[in-house]
Amino acid sequence: MRSLYLFLLSAFCSAQKIPRLKFTLKDSPVLSFENGEKSTVLFHDAGSEQLYVGGRGALRILTYKESEVNQTQVPLLADEKAEKNCRSKPGAVQAECDNYIRVIQRLNSSSIIVCGTNAGSPKCWFLSNDTRLQQDKRGQALAISGESLAPASPSQPAAAIAVEGSLYSALSQDRSTIQRSYGPRKLLRTEDKWLAKAEFVTAALVPGKESHLDEIYFFYNEVNKTAGLDEEPVKAQLGRVCKVDEGGKSLLVDFWTTFLQARLVCGSPTHPQRFNQLHDAVVLGEGRKGQGMLYGIFASAWGTTAVCAYSMDKVTRAFKTSKLKGYTNILPAHRPGTCVPYNSPNAPSKAVLSIIKDYPEIETVIYPEGQRPLYVLQTNDTYTKVVADRVLDASNTSRSVLYLGTDKGKIHKVLQTGGQTVIIAELSPFRRDAPISGMALDAFTGHLYVATEFEVTRLPLADCGQYRETCWKCVLAKDPYCGWDPDGKKCSAISGESNDTASNFLQNLDPEAEDVCEGAAEQVAPEALKKVSVDPTSYIYLPCPLRSHHAIYTWVKDGSKQYPCAMDGHSCTLRFGENAPMDQGLFKCTATEDGYLEEITAYKLTLNAACIPPLSVTVAAGALFLVVTILLL
Ligand SMILES: *[C@@H]1O[C@H](CO)[C@@H](O)[C@H](O)[C@H]1NC(C)=O
Ligand SMILES: *[C@@H]1O[C@H](CO)[C@@H](O)[C@H](O)[C@H]1NC(C)=O
Ligand SMILES: *[C@@H]1O[C@H](CO)[C@@H](O)[C@H](O)[C@H]1NC(C)=O
Ligand SMILES: *[C@@H]1O[C@H](CO)[C@@H](O)[C@H](O)[C@H]1NC(C)=O
Ligand SMILES: *[C@@H]1O[C@H](CO)[C@@H](O)[C@H](O)[C@H]1NC(C)=O
Ligand SMILES: *[C@@H]1O[C@H](CO)[C@@H](O)[C@H](O)[C@H]1NC(C)=O
Ligand SMILES: *[C@@H]1O[C@H](CO)[C@@H](O)[C@H](O)[C@H]1NC(C)=O
């Protein structure tokens, strides 16, 4: 008999909140940290084979080659004096009296800045030629004070980003500040009254149409510990400054003259359910491949997480058009916050600066696309980190793919495009279930770097071999990196850059099901029918292994009678019993998904006529699937 290979026109389509496939990745090059690193910060240059991992007392430089990884450690210890000081402070947390690396950023082609907590008095070092500590004239490692560059403790929230040789640091110390803290441009900071108690999450460069329009975004939570019960104690905020800001001439001389902030909401204006606390955010820049998007992971007061998507067009438009909170006069034509070079005739006047000084928050609240979180991503899993990629699919349409790290060390790979969100797969690369603490995506080499405090690894973005041998298995995966190559007869990576065969690749990423695999069916290896002969009084299970968790599985006897099955996460198992009396006949288990019907397994059951208990059950072929029988003698 041969496998059924049917395309049903009555395709059903539902948004499933669980990953469709689950993969344990055994071949990824995992590196373990013996004792765990309390905090891990990752840095990776797109296109390189190097990953910088900051931990406790050391910087690790990992070099990858295919599935191999080598590590070089650069010890960076806390100063003796600082450590002694730290330990003698009343109420000191002893574990914090060490050097935890918190900042790793590239300043220019030959220099990387590395800052650590240095037992409470932060310090920064420079890596020359990417591997060696820069030295001073006496041959000592060159170091500068990191007081305004990096946080003083491993647990303090902070964010940093380097742009054109300047470091921007956001620190949540006694006073929260956003500063340009190092580099050739004038060092600037926020006025104290601009930021309440801000806990910084991350920062991002948002390139403008021209270089002088580049902006730097900071994401943070404002925490109000004295808020009443009916008030929100946490709100997510987005602050931005212009790269070209050089401070004011007579007003705001040492401060940002372009700082504006906005409230970011993950929820709807009408629905009360809110995810207030921002955990992580990523900006997918506007480019050749599509519109800019902002993705954020937010947590509710109960700790459940959701993902919200924002159009960067809307965000930037809000900053360009909104009224300023509390400012009732008409805004000047040269709006506060506009990016203009320092000596331009359009430089903000004193009047404009005095508006920014007192009213740096815009009135428009930024709501997500669809006015709600991405429904499919409100799962039982708690998300900790997000990165995103943009992929040109087989028809050269731009698709977003999110990688969401969970608190159990898994990664959810998610297709997010138009109105559709699909959890393509859950990837398990690690041995220990610790929260994902860092991710870096390299679209050039097609790799994702992932770390927990115990392990770090890198994974291929296009892992098309996982979808295996048939066209429809490849197509149903809805993985925009992969398509069915009808000539090579395999599931292969689509190279978005080339214009060769990609357009011949078969893919079906949209919910409107269409039988793209028609005529490609012949590769299916007909499943051998398993013949089983059993004693009527014996107890027998028929397993039907699950692969896709989005399919519907059914057992049918002799092509008509349906039998219920017990789902256990791995199998839709037919157990004979009161509801399913044992009978002889042909039992088939099928899976239906997106209009495709697949026969997974089939058994021909015959009952022994004589009441002699059989010594064994004969199972012909299909060695993969075990038939478990317990003989009741
Ligand atoms: C790791 O080091 C070994 C020995 O020095 C070398 O042969 C190998 O190529 C290196 N692998 C990588 C990924 O750099
Ligand atoms: C790179 O940055 C470092 C540190 O700021 C600086 O000393 C060095 O001169 C810069 N090099 C170049 C080529 O700009
Ligand atoms: C970095 O590389 C350049 C060119 O290869 C070399 O001249 C310079 O001495 C190197 N610097 C250090 C600190 O190794
Ligand atoms: C915090 O909440 C209290 C009580 O409503 C309010 O008076 C105070 O202004 C709030 N603080 C901030 C920074 O919003
Ligand atoms: C989520 O958890 C609830 C309660 O523990 C459980 O009933 C439900 O099946 C879970 N959902 C998923 C998709 O695992
Ligand atoms: C795309 O096709 C054009 C015309 O055939 C060719 O000149 C170009 O090199 C191709 N580009 C790539 C990346 O293959
Ligand atoms: C794919 O789309 C991009 C951007 O829309 C365009 O620049 C490129 O030429 C397209 N490639 C092909 C093969 O159509």
Automatic annotation (TrEMBL):
SUPFAM superfamilies: Immunoglobulin, Plexin repeat, Sema domain. The keyword Disulfide bond applies. It is found in: Membrane. The keyword Transmembrane helix applies. Its main location: membrane. It comes from Gopherus agassizii (Agassiz's desert tortoise). Residues 20-461 form the Sema domain. Gene3D superfamilies: Immunoglobulins, ligand-binding face of the semaphorins, domain 2, YVTN repeat-like/Quinoprotein amine dehydrogenase. InterPro entries: Ig-like_dom (IPR007110), Ig-like_dom_sf (IPR036179), Ig-like_fold (IPR013783), Plexin_repeat (IPR002165), PSI (IPR016201), Semap_dom (IPR001627), Semap_dom_sf (IPR036352), Semaphorin (IPR027231). Residues 1-15 form the signal peptide. The chain crosses the membrane at residues 612-632. GO terms for cellular component: plasma membrane. Residues 526-606 form the Ig-like domain. GO terms for biological process: axon guidance; neural crest cell migration; positive regulation of cell migration; semaphorin-plexin signaling pathway. One of its GO terms (molecular function) is chemorepellent activity. This is Semaphorin 7A (John Milton Hagen blood group).
